[in-house]
Fold these 2 entries.
Entry 1:
Amino acid sequence: MTANPMLPEPFRIRKVQKESYDTFTLELEPLNRPDPFLFKAGQFNMLYVFGVGEVPISISGDPHHPETLIHTTRAVGTVTKAMRQLKTGDVMGIRGPYGTSWPVDRAEGYDVVIVAGGIGLAPLRPSLYHVLEHRDKYGKVVLLYGTRSPDDILFRKELERWRSRFDLEIYVTVDYANPGWRGNVGVVTNLIPKAPFDPLHTMAMICGPEVMMRFTAIELLKRGVEAPNIYLTMERNMKCGIGFCGHCQLGESFICKDGPVFALPEMQERLNQWEV
Amino acid sequence: MDTKTLEPILAEHPFFKDLKPEYLSILVGCASNVRFEANEMIFQHGGPADKFYIIRHGEVAIEVHDPRRHVIRIQTLRDGDVFGWSWMFAGRSSHFDARALILTRAIAMDGECLRGKFNNDHSLGYEMMLRFTPVIIRRLEAASMQLLDIYK
């Protein structure tokens, strides 16, 4: 992080990867920074498209390879739509890394269950990289991934590669499909009752739309996973990224500073509250 | 068919877990072994909804026909899953299509037969409702999430 946390650092786009019709990945390298961009799995950066605006985006790359900064996002708003137009060699501003991280250290000795919905796989990918890098420290590792349709599957090639491993269980499901799809159809929560993990010794990490996280947490609790061992990442309108402006306040928490990753007991009540 | 052989199969299935042996003995009279080849239709939209199925081994897709989008697959089911619940009321028809995706072995439970048994023994009927209702609730929750299109 720079001395002034509000000052973006220039990063050059090394590669643009189209993931689906509306999702893309940017690989970035620093222009001036002599040190690698160290971050923890689950943290986010503020990405600045010059002349357009700044948005918070989770880091989707490997924490063990900080020489390349990777972000994956959907083109849904003014800034991310402008970001999608950027090309290799273009420069953008980065502030960060900010926020709390996935409990990859606390999860050592436990089965790890990662439940991702849609674009939510991107913020979880660094935790999976970490767990696979230190595979011996964990019990069973299970990724449950649900998305809208087969065309929306994120990191498809990487998922296919991971599926070939003997020490990782991956289950993918889509909400609907044409008959050509040979995989699971149904919501991601349907995968939880039969997923191979020991609920009493499981650390779960969830990322996706809030409705999906709420139902996922309910299913994990039903299965017997303890609430303090369930983590999720929250999203709100972040502006400063450092807890000054208050835009991302949720109850007594600032999502940018106290989150975005929270243990379920910190958020359980708020997930069920209206207009918070 | 020798229905006696189905009793231990029913007893092992998660749907009938811990069901009293005397109830199993009654229910087995409504059960039959069925087998579907890959791509074979199990039931179709508009057809009589007079059975429910318990998958022993295999994979089944629940599909909807939409003239604009052809066939839309909305759910896949595997070993241990149960499908078809319109049988609870006489004269109902199926709202969806069910298709075996691979060779599938299942137990078909005859709806008319079951309704007769439940009329004779309300406790058995109540016990079965306790098992069916969570299946229905889970399906409705899943359908609600799909309708919300939360990943859009």
Note: The mean pLDDT of chain A is 92.
Entry 2:
Amino acid sequence: MIRVQLPYHLRTLTGAGDEVEVEVKVAVTQRAILDALEAQYPVLRGTIRDHVTQERRAYLRFFACKEDLSHQGPDAELPEAVATGEEPFKVIGAIAGG
Amino acid sequence: MSGVRVLVGTAKGAFILTADGKRDKWQVDGPHFGGWEIYHMKGSPVDLNRIYASQGSDWFGQVTHRSDDGGVTWDTVGNEFLYEGTPGTHAWYDGTPHPWEFKRVWHVEPSLTDADTVYAGAEDAALFRSTDAGQTWKELPGLRGHGTGPDWQPGAGGLCLHTIILDPSNEDRIYVAISAAGAFRTIDGGETWSPINQGLNSEYIPDPEANVGHCVHRLAIHPSKPDTLFMQKHWDVMRTDDAGDSWHEVSGNLPSDFGFVVDVHAHEPETVYVLPIKSDSEHYPPEGKLRVYRSRSGGNEWEALTKGLPQKDCYVNVLRDAMAIDTLDPCGVYFGTTGGQVYVSADEGDNWMPIVQDLPRVMSVEVQTLP
């Protein structure tokens, strides 16, 4: 299972805890994780990536294994530690606005 | 016993304020959706337990909620607002073409006849309708597509459709207002639209009397006189008596004809309320005095309503969706400020008291009159 950590406001939408688990049966990429996450929590559709373009919202970042993976392509494979569940895939809300 | 439920949208969540018909003792419930910007909430006149809420965020985009129990619990409903067809372009701040991009819902307007039908006014300006209680949304593309859309330019707050008036006498007639494009009307239920800006004069656009380009801040109507509308424009308070075909100014003796809100008394169609703001540069009340102005003559002659409102050192603003009027007798008038105060007058504006004083920045105020 893939571990996904969500920022506070998205946790309040899902009603889940700090971390959720999703199952990805294909290569573990940003797109695959987000597809699985949105299938499990439809309320998240449109909140992490745009409905139409599927692009990451500008004030969100994707971190894992102490790296900022935000600018990787959505179909680039993620580190093995994410795929095995050893490390979480983190959706981070940018600190902005004071 | 009758009562009221006041729906307050703020920059950091939603609050629900309730009182009985005396409107002197209040219960405050909230925050709902703590930390989220709540642009607007409004209840269905058909089913008072049905409330729609628009929640927006620069981080997480648009989220829409519906309550079926008067705001006790909420369900997340559809947030997919897609422009019909190829969206095309509108004018950007510098006049160059700019693609239409959905950003947020500014205003939700429940149908007057069907609790499952609700309209949403969006930025970039477009009108959407849901007929399944908010689960799915469909644009009414005749508005953006009627011909002037490519010329619409955003105001300082964005290119937003912020006002939706459903004519209670004719379900096919709808008015909307867009900053900074102007007012528009359909008479066929939203299929086709026309600008209704004749008589507006705006010195901040190259042709002050242009067909579109006016920064209309708010429209208001009384159900018993559906051909009469009042408008708070960027500058000027305006009035039409022919359903928007022509407008004339009724600013009269106001200390400033700039402002955001305008509303009409529940039982007197010629009694109108505005809240003058000093200017479009300062965005606070003239002389630091928070004054609602009331006209009992449909405009031109205005009286200041000050009892209970701060009359010195007050530098808040009152945003366009932040005034509401209940239908009790005497009617209650409500408004919220950018300083987090929500004021009520239970006697048509003669006397005021704060319901709450320390909320986040108030973005919208609506009121439901309960049986």
Note: The two ends of chain B are 7 Å apart (CA to CA).
